[in-house]
Design goal:
The chain has about 325 residues and is α/β, with parallel strands linked by helices. It has helices at about 10-20, 35-45, 60-65, 90-100, 150-160, 180-190, 195-210, 245-255, 285-290, 305-315; strands at about 1-5, 25-30, 45-50, 75, 100-105, 115, 115-120, 125-130, 140-145, 165, 170, 215-220, 235, 295. The chain has a 7-stranded mixed beta sheet, with helices on both faces. The chain has a 3-stranded antiparallel beta sheet with strand order 12-13-14, with helices on one face. It has a two-stranded antiparallel ribbon with strand order 6-7. One of its GO terms (biological process) is polysaccharide biosynthetic process.
Length: about 325
């Protein structure tokens, strides 16, 4: 694998990745993500086609992809949601059968590995985010992971106005370069990433232990076969919990705790997308259901266990 010199942010990286592979027409993607995933398609004049998610992994469901393919489909853009790997083999089989490209939105997946190594080796390209909310961050930034030097050269050209040398421009590129300050911050972060991941793991384990057995609360499980990065700690608030998800969300905010409803609403519910036939709620029942139950609890390396205790006690006894 090769890594393009880091771009300004992951959104620019997605836009550039699509251009690097000359993607056009329609791209199958998930409605359950941050809106930058599908915005990158619109910025390239590409039509997003939304497909429902798997109820366990919360990633794009390969069983639903094939029926969404049309003569205009040129690629699939899945998301490794919360850093949990997609069914990469199932998606690859479909892509191979229909001669489609795959660009993984791997914004959450820094450091994630399966038995064969980095999850970023799958697909034609993978895009990382180094935003301040991510496991590894440069405040703002990202990276495009590609399989060969030739692709890397094209990406680097597109990211730097299309320049080849001082006087030649070969493509309508963009100013997508990371600043030196952000890069320097990233180099410092790399020195501490292993300890940060270890801290995240301990917090993840504490949450799971303390939340176990609370009626109406379930913790999202990653794949036990993978090395996780503990990027998020998502829970589902079911109908048999004491409160609705939004009531719990507002109660926690009143107590100075700031969870996030990642991802609510669905991308497909925003005005610029909801007119698409694939965005109809009947087409996305699992994603819609999950979006109304999801709550991501605070997790970061310096989060004190005493605060984890307070959060879990509030969830266990909200009244």
């Amino acid at each position: 694998m090769a890594c393009s010199y880091p771009p300004t942010n992951a959104t620019i990286a997605l836009v550039t990745a699509l251009q690097a592979l000359r993607i056009t027409g329609e791209v199958i993607t998930t409605p359950y993500s941050f809106v930058a995933t599908s915005h990158a398609l619109l910025w390239n004049g590409i039509k997003p086609v939304f497909v429902d998610i798997d109820p366990h992994s919360l990633n794009l469901d390969p069983a639903r992809i094939e029926s969404a393919i049309t003569p205009h489909t040129t690629a699939i853009m899945p998301v490794h949601c919360y850093g949990h790997p997609c069914d990469v083999n199932g998606i690859q089989r479909i892509a191979d059968n229909y001669n489609l490209k795959i660009i993984y939105d791997a914004a959450h997946a820094f450091g994630v590995q399966d038995a064969g190594g980095s999850i970023l080796r799958y697909g034609d390209l993978s895009v990382l985010s180094f935003h301040a909310t991510k496991v590894f961050n440069t405040f703002e930034g990202g990276a495009i992971i590609c399989p060969d030097e030739k692709t890397k050269v094209r990406i680097d050209q597109l990211k730097n106005f299309g320049h080849v040398g001082e006087t030649t421009v070969v493509a309508p590129g963009i100013n997508g370069k990371m600043s030196e300050f952000n890069a320097a911050l990233g180099l410092l972060q790399l020195q501490h990433i292993d300890s940060a991941l270890a801290c995240r793991q301990k917090i993840d384990e504490a949450y799971r232990l303390k939340l176990a057995g609370i009626p109406g609360i379930s913790c999202i499980q990653g794949s036990g076969e993978c090395v996780a990065n503990y990027a998020y700690f998502p829970i589902l608030v079911h109908e048999d919990y004491f409160l609705t998800r939004d009531t719990l969300y507002n109660l926690m905010k009143e107590k100075g705790i700031h969870p996030r409803r990642y991802f609510y609403p669905l991308i497909s519910q925003f005005p610029m997308y909801r007119g698409l036939s694939s965005a109809h709620p009947d087409n996305l029942p699992v994603a819609l259901d999950i979006s109304q139950k999801i709550l991501c609890l605070p997790i970061y390396p310096d989060l004190e266990m005493s605060v984890v205790d307070v959060i879990c006690q509030l969830i266990a006894n909200p009244c």
